[in-house]
Write a structure and sequence with these properties.
Layout: H1 8-17, E1 22-26, H2 27-40, E2 47-52, H3 59-67, E3 71-74, H4 77-85, E4 93-96, H5 102-110, E5 114-117, H6 122-128, E6 135-139, E7 146-148, E8 151-154, H7 165-177, E9 182-186, H8 198-217, E10 220-225, H9 243-257, E11 264-267, H10 271-274, E12 278-289, E13 293-297, H11 306-310, E14 316-318, E15 328-333, E16 342-349, E17 357-361, E18 381-385, E19 391-395, H12 400-404, H13 413-426
Parallel strand pairs: 1-18, 2-3, 2-11, 3-4, 4-5, 5-6, 6-9, 9-10, 10-11, 13-15
Antiparallel strand pairs: 1-12, 7-8, 12-13, 12-17, 14-17, 15-16, 18-19
Helix pairs in contact: 2-9, 7-8, 8-9
Length: 432
């Protein structure tokens, strides 16, 4: 179920120091999850987690994970820049290519990052932009449906990612001619699964392919990258995946296919690492009764897109009303001119009054990072609840000048600056 271990007082104290809305992250919780993951794969001497930067691209969070022994999974130039600025280098960086500009390959190679190629055509691109490294990774797409038992967990055949098996055979042979001597394989076949069987089945696919392709091509097998895919229990009745058990099951598969070891294991978890350790903190500011009962928040889809984009469930609690009966049914909304700007639809909750502090759970991954500026709404601050029990702002809230800043090529820009100054000084409105 969602992480309910943080008492209301933590959110109330934070809201007393910082204007809502904001995302709050729990440092100790993030560190503990990194330690648990390391424990789960401690049987593999060369295991490493590469945190998916896309999930929570904040330098303070990345530094915490670096201190816990994690690398970073990057998929863009700006994510590589974050990695470089924080001192990640070489095998601490996994760069996954996906139809990106050619110069990003060269940048990744300059950092000596591990390159994970997504397509056969990228071989020539990499050759011309940084060169072929000694050890190369390729992303595998087995096609069809990916099933566990009788359940379809994903549809790789419909995904835009990865080589077919025949393309891998051809591509690895070409990479060997161009100087590669060893290789790894990567695959992402299911998203946000809480089934403990996912990683073990994926490991069997990748380790088998690694073994067979090494024989066929003569390249040395180096590692498999299980990518992400292990999810979190967003729904109250969902069980949490057991990473310790998952690690044991992957070990069984590993020892069957490579009994003498020598193969590294890599993961790229994002959601599992930080998702349950983040919350969107907001206030109820509006109450509307028409054909339904609505509660409007000072947050909107700009701050958390997943419910609007995917219809995703995020648990909601009301500070100070933990034991109150869930005897009111609300649509909980934001202020965007979009009818899908809803955090919850027909959700049973305690009675909510304007001014109540509303907590939206499990926003520590793909929350703030998916923010945008529709309707001119501004993205919120990010606050770290430190292991010492203090609060530290790790990203300030956007201001109107941030929103207008790329208009500095327009003659209207200086007038906008003037309007901003007048709005926040002459009228004595508190600046966000």
């Amino acid at each position: 179920m969602p992480n309910l271990s943080i008492p209301d007082s933590v959110f109330e104290n934070a809201a007393g120091q910082f204007p809502t809305p904001f995302h709050l992250y729990h440092e100790e919780g993030i560190r503990n999850r990194a330690k648990l993951l390391q424990q789960a794969f401690s049987w593999c001497p060369d295991y490493k987690e590469y945190f998916a930067v896309k999930a929570l691209p904040n330098p303070s969070i990345l530094q915490i994970l670096k201190e816990e022994g994690c690398g970073v999974d990057c998929s863009s130039e700006t994510e590589l820049m974050l990695a470089e600025a924080l001192g990640f280098h070489g095998n601490d960086i996994m760069f996954s290519a996906n139809a990106m500009p050619n110069h990003e390959f060269a940048y990744a190679r300059s950092l000596q990052a591990i390159i994970n190629l997504d397509d056969y055509t990228h071989i020539q691109v990499l050759k011309d932009n940084g060169g072929i490294p000694d050890c190369i990774c390729c992303r595998y797409n087995p096609g069809g449906n990916f099933t566990i038992g009788t359940f379809v967990m994903g549809n790789p055949g419909e995904a835009k990612y990865g080589f077919t098996y025949e393309q891998l055979r051809k591509g690895l042979a070409e990479l060997k001619k161009l100087g590669a001597s060893s290789f790894g394989l990567h695959a992402f076949l299911s998203s946000n699964t809480i089934d403990n069987a996912y990683y073990p089945k994926l490991a069997r696919i990748l380790l088998t392919c690694l073994h067979d392709l090494s024989i066929e091509t003569g390249l040395k097998p180096a590692f498999i990258n299980l990518s992400g895919g292990i999810g979190i229990p967003y729904l109250p009745d969902d069980p949490a995946p057991d990473v310790l058990q998952i690690g044991k099951e992957v070990q069984k598969v590993y020892e069957q296919i490579f009994p003498n070891g020598g193969i590294a294991i890599k993961t790229e978890l994002g959601r599992w690492m930080t998702g349950p350790e983040g919350w969107l903190v907001s206030h109820a500011i509006h109450h509307k009764d028409t054909y339904r009962h609505y509660i409007g928040l000072d947050a909107c889809a700009v701050n958390l897109m997943r419910p609007a984009m995917y219809g995703a469930y995020h648990h909601i609690t009301v500070c100070g009303k933990k034991d109150a009966p869930l005897d009111h049914v609300y649509d909980v909304t934001g202020s965007l001119c979009e009818n899908n700007d809803k955090f919850a639809i027909q959700r049973a909750l305690p009675e909510i009054q304007e001014g109540d502090l509303i907590i939206i759970h499990d926003t520590g991954a793909h929350g703030h990072s998916m923010g945008y500026n529709y309707n001119g709404r501004l993205r919120s601050a990010e606050i770290l609840y430190t292991k010492e029990g203090d609060y530290r702002i790790i990203r300030r809230a956007e201001t109107p000048l941030d929103y207008f800043s790329t208009l500095d090529v327009n003659e209207c820009y200086h007038q906008l600056v003037s309007v901003n100054q007048k709005h926040f000084s002459d009228k004595q409105i508190e600046h966000p």
